[in-house]
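I have a small job for you when you get a moment. Can you supply me with one protein entry, sequence and fold together? It will help me judge whether the discrete encoding reads sensibly. Write everything out right here, beneath this request:
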Amino acid sequence: MEIIGNKKNRVFLDKVVKSKNIIQAYLFIGKEGIGKKLIAEEFAKKILCFELSGNDNCKSCIRFESKNHPDFSLLNEESTTIKINDVRELIDRVIEKPILSERKVYIINDADKMTKEAQNCLLKTLEEPQDYAVIILIADNENMILNTIKSRCTRILFDSLTNEKINDLLKQKGYNNSITENMYNLFGGSIGKAEKMIQKKEIYDSVDRLLMKIGTTNKLDFYLEGKQIYIKDEIQGILEYLIVSLYNLGRKNQNYLNCVNIVQETINKINSNCNFDMCLDNMLWKIWEEVNEKNNRS
């Protein structure tokens, strides 16, 4: 897969490999879905390559591409909580010497989802590293990583992608849907987030259609139409998109801007396991009342 963006980091990592100045621990930091894992895998492949180029011709590269390399491990590919037993299993493999290449590479995806116990367990390995082992931590939220771990890693910061690059990538992947300004604002430079949203574009379009009618429809009809956004699996993205859309509308009408707090309160309540339908019911009523406040007073 072609990797787009963060060319400066990729050039730097290439130089690290070619100079053989590879250290034992790296921390890749940046927003979700901007290619950190792809670049980490590209880096790992080149470290393990017999020619240090990752050109697919050597036995190591062939094994890597077939996801069958004995000296490479990817922990937490599914992006779940990483517990202490997960890290213990990784450490058991770290102490084993390489089988095929001169080094071994371990990527910990979404390392910010490690429990504190898991991080403390990993710390000893970082403090007393094996010469042949390279550990790459990938994180969205640097604040969730213990300072003792960060101090033992080379930190590499990743930039968000530009809207132009995201648009090019989406076209390459065959997505030809028109993308609104609100969607670009919510992408936040993340191709991963962009792809997820574009696959469910009709849901987000329904949010825009709902807001367009808010000043011209009665309270009950607005509430009933709003029921179409009651999608539990997608509600976090829907409410974030609602905030972005309200901010945009708020440039011309302060009442829309006042609704942002209403949506944020709803997010907080849902995250606190309050009744899902009741939270959204109250949100829709309050948004309609806020936007139509002047009409109600007249």
Q: What stands out?
A: The chain has a mean pLDDT of 88. The first strand starts at residue 25 and ends at 29. Residues 7-157 form a domain with the Rossmann fold fold (CATH 3.40.50.300). The chain has 15 helices and five strands.
